[in-house]
Amino acid sequence: xxxxxxxxxxxxxxxxxxxxxxxxxxxxxxxxxxxxxxxxxxxxxxxxxxxxxxxxxxxxxxxxxxxxxxxxxxxxxxxxxxxxxxxxxxxxxxxxxxxxxxxxxxxxxxxxxxxxxxxxxxxxxxxxxxxxxxxxxxxxxxxxxxxxxxxxxxxxxxxxxxxxxxxxxx
Length: 170
Ligand code: PNS
Hints:
With 170 residues, the protein is α/β, with parallel strands linked by helices. It has 6 helices and 5 strands. β2 (32-38), α2 and β3 (66-71) form a beta-alpha-beta unit.
C-alpha cells in the first residue's frame, strides 16, 4: 500500500512549540510527516531557509516518521513530487480561518487530489506565532515554554535584546 504522507508546510521563521505540537498530533494519523519549509527569501525572513531546515531537523531527528525539506514554487507541485495528498495546517483561532480556507480551496482547485487537514494546537499555544516570537524576543520578553531552547539560542545570536546590550542600561 502507498505510504500516507502528510505535508506540513510553512515559513517556520522560526519554529515554535505550537508548530511542534501540530507535528506531534499528526504523526499518529499518517505514515510520514514531511515538514516543508517555504523558500521565501524575498520576504526577508530572519533565518535563511537552510537555517530553518537545520533547526527543525534538530528538533525531529529522533522521529523516524518525520523529515524536513525546503520547497519553492507551488505547494501542490511539491506534493506531487513527493507523492503526498494531505496538507496539514494548524488553526489557532477563527481569525486564521479565512486565509486557510482560501488556501485550502485554491490548492484543491490546482490539484483535486490534495486535501487540507486542519488541526488545533494545544490551547496554551493558540496565541503563538513566529511573528510574535521574534517581536517579543527582540524587546527582551520571556519566551520560556513557547520555543525550544535551541531556537532561543539562535534568536539570541540574531536579535540581542536591548536589555542585555552593554549599552542598554545607560
Ligand atoms: O507559515 P505560513 O507562512 O503561513 O505558510 C504559508 C505557506 C507556505 C503554506 C503558503 O504560503 C504556501 O503554500 N506557499 C507556496 C506557494 C503556493 O503554493 N501558493 C498558493 C497557495 S494557495
